[in-house]
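Annex B. Sample input.
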Amino acid sequence: MKLVELNKIFNVHYGNQFDLYRLETNELSDINFVSRSSQNLGVVSKVSMFNEVEPFSAGLITVTLGGTYLLSSFVQQDPFYTAQNIKVLTPIKPMSFSEKIFYCNAISANRFRYTSHGREANVTLNTLLIPEEVPSEFLDVDVEQISNLIVSEKSLNNATYELDAENWQYFSLEKLFDIQGTKTTTVLELEAIGAGIFPYVTTQASNNGVENFYNFSTEAGNVLTFDSAVLGYTSFQELPFSASDHVEKLIPKFEMNQYSALFLVTILNLEQYRYNYGRKCSQTRIRKIQIKLPSKNNEPDFEFMCDYIKSLSYSGSLKN
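Annex B, continued. Sample output.
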């Protein structure tokens, strides 16, 4: 397979280099704000147009140049602005969605060549070597069709709900959860015990934080887990689990189910832009976090949160 420099296939240019706090968040806007997150295509918020700056077009590829998730690459589905340290790739020739997905994976596969706060990709991304052509076997997979099948999954609730965030209220995490650390378990200990059904939760911001499954657990399920090492990535752990270092748990003070948990996880992961290696999301900072939620009679409206998640097109695939 012949390799060529990235700039032979894409026009490569810096993104907007905006700071989210300077923009107006707007859930009704069609403009996404793309950060250096590895989740949700890097999108952390919707924002209003800023100073009449036209957003980048949907269908372009964003690539993170530094931070924890170096070379996270995504095809953006909507118009967007970007945070700092992100480049935007425009195909030089017409390119299908499947081809773009292949190149996102090809770019991300080079992550091992770089280190955060060391050798980052700012200078060398343009000349990164990637395959000149997409393998035919990859093109045989209809990525768009698969995506459509997932998105069109039957919903659990046919009602329509609007997110009127302007009228939501702020609640502290300490009001909603008991915030505790977890018992640190090493991989060596778990490998000695053997594979099983219980998740091993780490600080990785992918795959729900789960690295593997073993026949051992130290923590009860139906809690949220929180990465206190860097960004505060949050996930929902339904099953009992064991954990690596720097994994905190948020034990609900209310009756939480998977639907309310998924709503809360989404809101909490929007906070990741506040943190980095210099300003880690420690347990002390976790206790000070306030999140804006739907409310009723000055209390969180968990019934609305559940109904909203059930109304989404993929909710039929959730376990009842």
